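Friendly challenge for the regulars: who can give me the structure tokens for this chain first? No prize, just bragging rights.
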Amino acid sequence: MPVLEINQLTKTYRSITAVKDLSLQVNKGQVFGILGPNGSGKTTTLGIILGIIRADVGTFSWFDGEYGRDERMHIGALLETPNFYPYLSAWDNLEIVAHIKKIQEPQIDRWLQLVNLLERKDSAFRTFSFGMKQRLAIAAAMIGDPAVLIFDEPTNGLDPQGIAEVREIILRIAGEGKTIIMASHILDEVEKVCSHVGIIKKGKLLATGEVGAILSNDRQVDIAAEDLPKLKALLSSLPAITKLEEKNHHLSLLVKEEITAAYLNKLAFDNGLVLTHLSMRPKSLESEFLEITR
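First reply, four minutes later:
Bragging rights claimed.
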């Protein structure tokens, strides 16, 4: 079931096109990562679908129009730096958020427990570390128990421990069946957290689909034999080989994880070929991401 449908969104700022003909679909229960370099239009896209920024062209719809004008009541969001009253406690700040959202039973203890801040509920916001402030902002987004959570660079500026804590919280929220849309420029973050990804650059969608399909764990293989044309013909027939190029008297392949060096060696030998070179290494997801966005 589609939770969000975006159709050909375009947004320009004078001579700069922030988003260009962007179309995406996010389905219920997905953890959808919008991945792209800084300045690629991620935050602008989130601003548009939250109604903060008006698109020049295109449309978007939430929940297939099920909630009408009340759709924002079912969406929680964390954009940019968390802002709270510094002299008030975590509890009091969340109580104000609940009042603004008009939530009668905000379950503040539940959300503080979720982000591991229940023991600090009476501490002033100004005494919190940056990571704690970020986690409190996630708790604020959860007030009202929304169906969809939107996070814009949720681990930006955090130390490794803070990144791990926020990642664990997002996975916990996803485990409750929530739909999550997360913008990030960090490949590792998207790979570890998201089920689906849309890669954008300069506001344009370059690729979208399941993380494992778009950012695959294919292996890079360099292989050669004296009869290179025969080897090339043999390997070209294998569906587990996703890319095959001839380079400097050897073949460069991308193969699925299940293909091993022993399998390739035996395959060649069984077909009357003796390999003169064979090396295999994991393909860097970073290099694949850079390939897509180049």
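The chain has a mean pLDDT of 89. Residues 160-175 form the longest helix (16 residues). Your move, everyone else.
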